[in-house]
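Researcher: Good morning. I'm working through a list of sequences from a screen, and I'd like to move beyond sequence-only analysis. For each chain I'm collecting a predicted structure so we can compare shapes side by side. This is the next one on the list. No need for commentary yet; just the structure.
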Amino acid sequence: MRAAIGILLLLVLVAVILLFIFSTTPVVTLPASLKAIGQATPVTVSISDPHGVRRAAAYIEQNGERYKLADVEHPSKPFSWGRNAPVETLRFTAGAKSTPQLKDGGARLIIEAVSNDFRGKTGASIRDVTVATQPVKVSVDSDQHYLYVGMADLVTYNVSGYATASGVRVGDETFRGWPMPGGKPGEFSLFAFGWDMPLNTVPAVYATGPGGDEAHGEMVIRFPKKEQPKYRVRDLEIDDKFMQKVVNELDPNGSGDMVGRFVRINSEMRKANNQTLADLRTKTEPRFLWSQPFQQQPNTKVEANFADVRNYIYHGKKIDQQTHLGYDLSSTQHVGVQASNDGRVVYAGPLGIYGDCIVVDHGYGLQTIYGHLSEIDVHEGDTVKRGQVMGKSGVTGMAGGDHIHFSMQLEGVQIDPKEWWDAHWIRDHIARRVELPGFAG
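Model: Good morning. C-alpha cells for this chain:
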C-alpha cells in the first residue's frame, strides 16, 4: 500500500513539474501603425498562447495615473494539457471620449494577458502613444492645377492637429503625402489622374486623424477638355510566328490551344505583371533622387504611344483587346538602354509580358520601367545616373521586334512620361512648388 501511495505521489509530482515546465507566456502584439490616440480610436490587439488566455486587460497611463480601457476573463484551466488554443483578439476603443481625464500629449498604452495554464504567467506589450484630442484640419495651396488624363501633378498643403496619414485621393487611388523637402513647413503630394479615370472625378487632399476622422481640402482644378489627350485605337496583326514565340517563351508548360494560351498571357499575365509593378511603390525613397528633366532614350523612334488601345487580330479575327501603358522606342538592335534619370534600381529580372525588365525608383513614388531587354547589367539596389547604360534592348516578352518599352508610374499608377521629358513642365509643376535641389531647367 505504501508503495502504491508513493508511486501515486510521484506521478502527481511529475505531473505538477511538467505543468510547471510547459507553462507558457502570452505574446501580445499591438498594431505597428498605432502611434496616436484621438477622441475614439479603435484598437485591435492580437494575443497568442498555446494554452489560451485566462485574462486580458488594457490600460492607458498618463501623468502617473492609470485608466482601464478593457478587461476580459475566461474560465480558469490550470490543469489543461491542450496546446492548440486559437489566437485571442482583444478589441476596444481608446481616447478622450471614453477617458475624459486624458490630455493632449504623451501617454503609455499597456496590454497585459495571463496564460490559462498552471503558472498563469503574464505577458505584456507597452507602447508610447500621443494623445490628440483636437480634430485634424487641412488647408490646400491656392495654385490652379491643370489636369490631363494620364498625367501627374503636385499639390502642397498644411495639416493642423495630429494626422496619422495624409495625401491625395483620386477616385479609388490614394497618393501619399510627404514632408516638404529642406525641412520647410507643410506637406506635399505627387498624384496622378489615371488614363482611365472619368473626367468628373474630383481629386481631394485628405488628412486622417488617430480616431479615423478625416478632414478634406479642395484644390483649384481645371480640366482643359479641348487639350485632353486622344488615345489611339490600333489593329495589331498577329501571325503564327509571333504567337508561337510568345506562347513558347511565356507559357512553355501550358495546355490548351495556342489562341487561348496567348489570350491568357495577354490578359491574365499582363494584369499580374502590372500588379507586380504597382507593388514596387513600397520600394521608394522619401526624397528626390533626380534634379534634371527625364530623358527619352536618345536617337529612338516612337513606335507606340501611351494608352494606345490595341485590337489583336489573328487570321482576320479579333481575339483580344488591351491598353498599352507606355512608349515603344526603337533604334538599332541591342542598343544600350539608358537610365532616364538618376535613381535606384528596385527591380531587375524577368517580368512576363515585359520580358527582361528594369525598374528605377526616383523618389516619392515616381518610377521608370524599361522592358523587352536582351541584357541586364544592373542589380536591385544599384544607384544609377541619368544616361547610364543599364542593359540592351531586345525582343523578350511580348515584343515583336527589337525595341524598348518605356513607361513611368506614380505610386503604382502608370502615367504618360512625356510631361516629365519637358523641363518647362517640371519647373511649373514641381520645382516652383517644392525645393528640387540642383534643378536648373
